[in-house]
Specification:
The protein has a domain at 47-53 and 63-174: Immunoglobulin-like. It is built from one helix and nine strands. A hairpin with a 7-residue loop joins β4 and β5. The termini are far apart. The protein has one helix at residues 3-16, and strands spanning 47-51, 65-77, 82-87, 100-104, 112-118, 136-139, 145-155, 165-166, 171-174. Residues 33-172 form the Spore coat protein U/FanG domain.
């Protein structure tokens, strides 16, 4: 089969299958006209935050004094976006940012254990949720940044009942 007949045959098969064959563009030489097309993308300031759990090691017997643990926060903010990271008081009633409480989870256990969250390993800078006072400030780079949260629970001379003591603290990024 010669070439023109093969083309006609392929066009006929494509048409029978419901396929369209693109038309070839013609060549024109009468002149040209142009227009500019603006292309634009707007990036708005934005941040995301994620938190890993903080789990203190289990305590047995008559331990007293501080028990330490850490957690991490990961933040991604658009480049050059200033932000503050805050941690609230938690979900246990009567908790404050400077005196957070862990509460027992067993029915009838009303005991609480005080704990603090800090921005530094020396437990010198409490981590709160008041911008300009006790939040941690930084600026976005467009990539993930990781921050360590240092926790310290305080056990008194009177050991609380065996239980799992907990609270849920909310991390907020203000930008």
């Amino acid at each position: 089969m010669n070439r023109p007949l093969r083309c006609v045959a392929l066009i006929g098969i494509a048409a029978a299958l419901g396929q369209t064959v693109p038309a070839r563009a013609a060549v024109y030489s009468n002149g040209t006209a142009t227009a500019q097309m603006r292309v634009q993308l707007t990036i708005l300031p934005g941040c995301t935050v994620a938190a890993s759990p903080m789990t203190f090691n289990a305590v047995q017997g008559s331990a007293t004094g501080p028990v330490a643990s850490t957690s991490s926060l990961t933040v991604v903010c658009t480049a050059s976006t200033g932000y503050n990271i805050g941690l609230n008081a938690g979900t246990v009633p009567n908790s404050t940012e400077t005196n957070r409480l862990l509460a027992g989870t067993l029915t009838g256990n009303t005991t609480t254990i005080p704990f603090g969250l800090f921005q530094d390993a020396n437990y010198a800078t409490p981590w709160g949720n008041t911008q300009g006072s006790n939040t941690l400030g930084d600026s976005g780079t467009g990539v993930m940044k990781t921050y360590t949260v240092y926790g310290q629970a305080t056990l008194s001379a009177t050991m609380p009942a065996p239980d799992v003591y907990s609270s849920t603290v909310t991390a907020t990024v203000y930008f």
